[in-house]
Every structure is written in C-alpha cells, then in structure tokens.
Records
---
Amino acid sequence: MNSKEYALIVAGGMGTRIGSETPKQFLELNGLPVLMHTILAFYRYSEEIKVILVLPESEKDTWKSLCNRHDFVKDLVICTGGNTRFQSVKNGLKEIDEEGLVAIHDGVRPLVSTEIIAKSFQVAAINETAIAAVSLKDSLRIADGNGTKTVDRSNFKLIQTPQTFKVSLIKKAYATHLDSSLTDDASVAEKAGYGVTLFDGSYENIKITTAEDLVVAEALIKIRQHNRDGIKK
C-alpha cells in the first residue's frame, strides 16, 4: 500500500446506557479495557499505522492510569475531543498533516478484524471512501400515526465503522459542513457532496452500548482465542 495509513479512534462515550459510572471504553473486557482491544486491532493490521486517539480532556488521566496498570505502551497521538462526535473527529483530523487514507473508528468496537480493516483501506484506495456495513437480519416495519407497515429490508444497511477516506476528502467535508448533529462520517461526506462506497462489514464487529454487548463481546473473544490456539496446535 503506497498511501500513508492512519487510524482515528474516537473514544468519547459515557457509560449511561450500559448502567456504569465508568465510561464504556474503559470497562474491562477479557482482562483489558475495551479501548485497548480496539487499538490493538489496528496494530495487528499494521505496526506502521499511525493511530490518533481522541479522548475527552476529563478522561486523559484515567487513560494514563490504565496504560500504566496494563503496561500498555504504544506510540499514539492523543488529542482532546469536543462536545459532539462531529467536533471530536474534526479535532482528530487536525493531527494529520499528510495525504493518505484515514480509518475513522469507534473506540467501543473492539472486535474489528484485521480483514475488515484491510478491506477498508483497499476499497478507499480505489474509491476514496469505504464504509463498513451489514445487511439487516430481522424484518423491518415503519411506524406512523396510523399504525405500522412493512418495508423491504434489502433496501437498508446497518452502518458500522471503520469508515475510511482519502484524507483530503474527509478534511474538506468536515471543514465545509457544520451540522454537528451528524453521527457518522459517511453522513458528513455525503452532506458535503461526496458519494460513499459501502463494503461488507461483519456481524461480529459489534459496538459496546449495553451490558448485553459486553457479554457477547467476551464470548466472541474467547471463541477467537480458542480457534487461534487450535491452529497453533
């Protein structure tokens, strides 16, 4: 890959929906904070990738303490997030001063695979955008004032991260569009007039939002470890 590769990991969430006073990115998952699993996923993909971690100012000391406790030593660029995800990503993009490709990823998606990360960079290298997405499994109905009606689920996708872009494209998108209510980077790029390219994500690439998600993530990690141990034997 000729383009310089970046990972911008956004970790500004709180533990409200998960019922914890600890921000969900710092909750323990199989012996490590969720956020460390996420960061390690990108280093498993490439030791050469430049990782930018966006944290709330109020959580930087907590992160430093966790790194000391777990002997977690990685050459990260750490910057301060904003009041919204939009502002946090915008702040993180300011840390990139060269052209290349940047994978923007939720800090609480710790199970992203090497294959998905690699695919995101491959697709973005060709199309300038690459958005991980999966098809819906369940039936879908839309509700209005008169009741509900079924819709064709094949017309819809669940959007995940990483969302990977040519650096100059996504920087321009964040510079030209100021709707801070937008909750993902594909929407920002689209609002700025750019098309977006979807690629197949993974149902295992879950976002830790509720207590149930932690249980599922723990089980998936143990399955992966068991499979790796089996291969080694």
---
Amino acid sequence: MKSIKFTSCMAANADIVCRQISTYLGDRLGITTEFIADIPWQQREKLLDTGEIQVGWICGLPYVWKADQHYPIELLVAPVMQGERYQNQPVYFSDVVVRRDSSFQALADLRGRRWAYNEPRSQSGYYVTRYTLAQRGLPSSYFGEAIESGAHQVSLQMILNGEIDASAIDSTVLELELQQQPGLAAQIRIIDTFGSSPIPPWIIAQQVPADLKQQLRSAFLTMHTDPIGQAILMTGLIDHFVRVTDADYDPVRAMIPLAETVLL
C-alpha cells in the first residue's frame, strides 16, 4: 500500500494541522498521502468505518462504540496537548463558556438557561455534560433549552451572539480558537470545567499492512523530535503523540451508563 488517505472528524479549526501532519508523514515514509476535508465529517467517519479512508482522528466516544461493536479499526496514537493542565497525559477537558459580560459565575447559575451542545455523539459537548449533571445530582432538563448547534465553533458564536447562555466546549478546540482569534479571549469566560476525558485518538483501518501501521505509528511518535515535525505540532498546540490502548478509553465507557440517566 503506497497511498494512504487521512481525515479528521474533529472541529474544523484542526483541519490545517491535520493536513500538515498527513503531508509530513507521507514525506517521512515516502508514500502518497491525501487529506480528505471536502465532505461533511459524518461522511468522513463512514469512510473510516469502511476503510476507504485509512487513518483518522475521531472522538473517544464513537471510538468506544466502534471498538465494542468490532468495527475493523485499531488505535494508532493519541495527542498530548501543550499546557500544564494536561499534565503530560493524553486527556482533555470540556470548558463551560459564557459571555464575559454575563452574570453567570457557576453551573448553578445556568438552571433554566439556554444551553447548546455540538452534537449527540460527542463526548466533549454532550455525554460529559449529561454525566456531570448526573454526578452532581442535577435533573434532566436542568437547562431551560438545549440546542444542537452542530459544532463547537458554532456554539461559541451563538454565545457571542447572545442566542444561548452557555456551552461545554472541548478545551483543545477552544484553545486553538483563542490562538486563531486573539480577540475572543476578551469576549468570553470559563465558569466550570467538566472532565478530564481520554483525548480523541487517531485510528487506522485494520486492513493496512502491519509493517506500514508500525512505520506510521513510529513516525507519529517521533514527530516532536524533528524540527519540522515539531513546528507542525505547535500550530495545533500539540506537544507530542503517545501510544494508547483500548483500556485507556475505559473511563469513557464508565461514564456512559450514568450519563444516560440524564437528558438535556
């Protein structure tokens, strides 16, 4: 196999670094790579499921569902993000964001308010919110209105526009958005944080030859040691990649039953 297709099912603001990563890996291994970003992420995920796209970055919750249903995928690597809060571990958080000029100071202030989540198969925006409400003894329909926005970046814009009061935003998406839009920091506040959760992994189709899988994994794992690779990672606020196992996503599995006792 001399050609590999890559994609991302993460927020759109990660597409730039993902494209650069796929090009870098192709150059390192002397193979042709293609980054697929011109179709909706839902279609990208389906092509990952069938192996028509061989490598992709997906949310930890769909990974768990796919792994437990024996989809023909395997874990490849996972990112460790820059920043002290990540403690050099492949984890992330969900930050509860409000407008800076609002009166909200804590989750308790959001009872009966307007909330948005990105989409219902998301750990960062949906399931971890339901889990946190259940864990804190808060009821279903705690929020007055819960709107599916379609994407974390859309939720952020809805907060800025005053269409909603708050949303749980994937911390890696938020930090990248703050880097790309420096003026955003003056317009929002974080009033709570849910998690941590195991970070979305990169997966690979089982059909990819074992030697090529190993070469790809090795190139990911050593990317931060190469000045060119390190520069690419910095654009995505990634420190380095690590190898992960299915057991590393057991915390997601453990959250599901409690999360499903509460509805937004």
---
Amino acid sequence: MGELLVDFITSLDGYASGDGWPGFWGLEGPEYLAWLGEQPEVTYLMGANTYRLMSGFAAGQVPDGQAEFRPEEEESVDGLTKARKVVFSSTLEEPLTWANSTLVRGDAVEAVRELKETEPGLLSTIGSLSLARSLLRAGLVDRFRVGMFPVITGATGAERIYDGYPDVALDMTEHRTFDDRIQLVEYRPRVLDHPPLHAGQ
C-alpha cells in the first residue's frame, strides 16, 4: 500500500511563489538543502500547468527576471528529471518530452487511489494546487507537509495555496527548523464535515 504526501513550500502568508522572487525566495540554507538531498525515492504527481513549468525549467528555460539558474535550483530540477512523474492532463499530448513522465488522462482521484492500492512507496504532489486540493477532499492524503519560509509576499505573492480548501483538522507528527529560519511542519490531515461549533446542528 502506498502513502500520499501533499508537500508545499510557502511564504509565511501562504503563497506558493512571488513575482520577482527567486526559487525558495532566495532563503534556502545549507541545512535545508542537505535535508532535501536526503529525501527518499518518490513518485511525483502533478497537473498540466506544473508539468509545463517544470519541464520548461528542465529544458533550460529560466524564470522571468533571472539570467540563469542558481546551483541549488539546477540541482532541484535535475532531481525532478531523474524521478518518476505521473502527470494528469486532458490537454497535454503524448509522448511527454520530460524524462520519466507518464501521462494519465482519466480521473486523477481514481488514478491516485489505484496507485496507492497497487504500488508501495511514497507518492507526493509537487505544486499542482487544484490536484492537491482534490486529493485531500477525497480523503487520500496521509501526510500534509509545509515548509514555511520567513517572508510575507502580500504585495507580490502568486498562487494562494489554501483558497477553496475544505476545513481540515491537522494532527502534528513532525516539526523542525532549518538554518534558524525555515520552519517545517508535517501533519496527519482529517477533512471535516463541519466546524466544531456546528457539530450538534
């Protein structure tokens, strides 16, 4: 039986990225990068938009405003290229050009449910906010992990992560600090039918 992790990297105010900011908001440190390099083998799950963005990076496209990738960004993209990836899309065409990528056109929730039931190991979303939200709503998420970087991108933040989410109770299973500034928290999520004060109504 597989395990599903939803894994986000966010600003303190819950944005996935910010216009004019580099990857990791330029705030990654040696402890955090070393931890990233120690992560177990994983199958990444993503939608079409994330695939287009990340495969573009793998092909050498540099984010707007940057002249070139920083070494830690290159290493991150190289790691993704080597990993197995499952891409859910009705618009992308086969064959996918990014190495180790498989296209799935059917229902993502049912496909991930089958992957969990038939394959051992860790599945993890990357980006793909709507996919992560759908998997959480379906009760398929075993672990919910957030790396919070010490920056508020209220003026420039892009991709608000939690918009459209159901109410979710989170039981903490891990927490740690990297480089005296990056907070990692991991939880077991439980989707709620209603908030606690409405339980008797």
---
Amino acid sequence: MLDEERLTREESMIRRVAWVGGVAVTLVTAALLLPLLASATSGWQYPVYSALGGIPLAYGLFSSLVLFKMQVVLLHRHQAQLLMRVSELKEVASRDEMTGLHNRRHFYEVSEEELTRAQQRRDTLAILLMDLDGLKGINDEFGHGVGDIVITNLAAIISKHIRTTDVAARLGGDEFGVVMPGTDKRGAFALARRLWEEMERKPMYEDDETELMVTVSIGVAGYPWGGDSLDEMLHWADADMYANKMSRRLPEEPESPQELDDAGALIDDYALGN
C-alpha cells in the first residue's frame, strides 16, 4: 500500500513538473516573441525572431519529453517491484510455516494443473500420499514439541529425495503429498522405496536419552494407470495408503492359518501395487 501511494505521488509530481514547465516556456516564449515580431521593420527579422523564439520552445518540449520518459521508467520500476512483492506473497501463502513445504491448497492446484497438462500431452503423472504412523502416541508420550520435530525431519527427507520438478506438500497434521509430473508407476514406487529405506536407518528424533524411529504409510496413484481425474487418483492413493497402514498393523503371529493367508495376500497386493 505504501509503495502504491508513493508511486502515485511521484507520478503526480513528475506530471505537474512536465505540464508547468511546458506551459511556462510557452508563455515566456510568446511574451518575448510577440513584441519582437510587432516591432520588426524588415522582412528578414521575422524568420530570425521566430527561430530565436523557437529555441526555448524546443527546449521546453524536449524537457517535457525527458520528464515523461522518466515517468515511464519510474512506473516500470515500481511495477517490477510490485510484481516481485506479489510473487513473494504468493510464495509465502503457498507454504506450510512449520515444514517449509507447500500447503494443501497449493498441492491441489498443482495436481489439477499437472493432470490437465499430462492429459493434453499424453504424458504420465504420479501422486504419492503418505501418513506418519503413530504421531499421536509420540505426542502423548514425548510432547507436541517432539512431534513437531519428527514432522519437520520427515519433510526434510521428502525434500531430499524429490526432483526439482516435483511438488511436495504438507496436507495437514501428519499427512503429506507429492506431485510427480512425467513419472510412471515404477518411478513413483521407487520414490516410496527411497523414503522407506532412509526412515528405516535414520531416527526422526534423538537426544541423549531418546531415539525415535518412525514409519510412514504410503499410497501411490497416477495417470493414466491410476484414474482419469484427480478425485479418482486421490481415492486410489488413499486406499493404497490405507492398505499399507493396515498391513503394518497386522499382528506378527496371526491366530489362525486363514488370518495368515489374509495378511500375506494384503501385503503381496501392496507390493505388487494392486
């Protein structure tokens, strides 16, 4: 707001100086030239006086043009500054304050844009959803401060493994998402594998007394192999993530052979991406 007000004041000042200067030069030139022309006695005096009077008039017009150019340059400079500020504000508005990743709204906007682009270009697109396992238990046992550190460290791992063309976002709480343009099913599962592997060997929180190893449940979907609309893709990715979460929660020793078969089928289905 202050930049806009200052721009308006400077534009008005330059415009006033240009108009006042031009009018003043014109009036002074006319006041000097008319008496000279009226007192002229020879024919040669008319063109000479007119030429002499035209010099300050031309100078006034030139000065007005210079001031106008300055105004245009000033306007363009302030416009560039305003556009930069708008871009900065948009960037801040699209970021999650805690993790530095993009927020939920930006994730959905980019997903829609990339899906449209993929459909137009007949390209591939993958979306990965993930949910941090056991965050409530961490908050209850160690406090929300430790939980926030776990979330921030997970965001750092995601940022480390994605490409510059991918868009990672915190969707809310302990939920994250990644949009991967030009990525097929194999590439999406490769990213999921890299995230799992690093989290298996790196604590998400540690101090002198505590070392927390956490896991995430991950679901993958994409275009054209996982839906034709964003809603379908998110539905299948969410279902895939839920299957992964349930497989991690199954008891280590099922009570019956039937339960063992069901558990194995569920895990095999997920490993195959079904």
